[in-house]
Design a protein that fits this description.
single chain; 253 residues; alpha/beta; Rossmann fold; six-stranded mixed β-sheet; 6 strands; 43% helix
Length: 253
């Protein structure tokens, strides 16, 4: 029974695009914490993840803090922001993944890692990233074997091919996507299932060509161009942004 849970990572773990009425992010980690808190009266939770962070930043800014909390359960998810960058040094990325998982495993009761979602069937331009993604997954699998970590396998789940699980920016999961990840995590933790997280999503009716073209133009203007601009100028959506739950504290969700 886990009494403390600390999550580190980027926007995936922060919960970006699963927004609450007050504008804050919820996400899969909060949903998991809420479920665990129901069973453990003194349960405490911290989420150090910040959107846009590269794996080196996660290692330098979050892992040490998480390790110092010595949680029963620590989750690590990172590296995809690096993989998506043209100048990615994949060998350095994998080294930082190993360092991070080693440190978290040594300081926590149990480490949890993720086999990342496969973007290649949903985004045609992502096929070029597959060799790097496969190496990242290999590093996660090696860490899991080394530390007897809990593995949440999202890579093989075809349900995430559905646009219905993604936000308008096509990069971040929406509320339903995070809900499904949370259920996958809880299943990996041995909790009784509440629904079939990997059940197919019924396809939406196809839009007329004109509506698809307008949606594509809106996406380019609102999301693609700003994303490219940040990459070219070395900026990140998480610059100056603090973690939403920096301290181990009771969770009421």
């Amino acid at each position: 029974m886990h009494t403390t849970f600390v999550a580190v990572g980027d926007s995936f773990t922060e919960g970006m695009s699963d927004e609450l009425p007050d504008g804050t992010c919820r996400g899969w980690a909060d949903l998991v914490a809420a479920r665990l808190a129901k069973d453990v009266p003194d349960f405490r939770y911290a989420n150090l993840a910040v959107r846009g962070k590269l794996v080196g930043q996660i290692a330098d800014e979050q892992v040490g803090l998480a390790a110092a909390m010595r949680p029963d359960l620590a989750s690590f998810a990172g590296g995809m922001n690096d993989v998506m960058r043209p100048g990615c040094d994949i060998d350095l990325v994998l080294r930082r993944v190993r360092e991070s998982t080693d440190a978290l495993a040594a300081a926590s009761g149990r480490l949890m890692v993720f086999r990342v979602i496969d973007p290649t069937r949903r985004m045609r331009t992502a096929a070029r990233l597959l060799p790097r993604i496969n190496r990242l997954i290999d590093a996660v699998d090696a860490a899991a074997a080394k530390h007897d970590a809990i593995v949440v396998d999202l890579f093989s789940a075809r349900v995430f091919d559905s646009p219905a699980l993604w936000a308008e920016d096509r990069i971040h999961l929406n509320a339903e996507g995070h809900r499904r990840v949370a259920e996958a995590v809880l299943r990996a933790l041995g909790r009784d299932p509440e629904f079939e997280w990997d059940a197919p999503v019924p396809p939406a009716p196809p839009l007329p060509w004109s509506q698809r073209a307008k949606a594509e133009l809106r996406w380019v203007r609102a999301h693609a161009v700003p994303w490219i601009g940040r990459r070219l100028t070395g900026r990140s959506s998480g610059d100056g942004r603090p973690p939403k739950r920096p301290d181990l504290a009771p969770y009421q969700g």
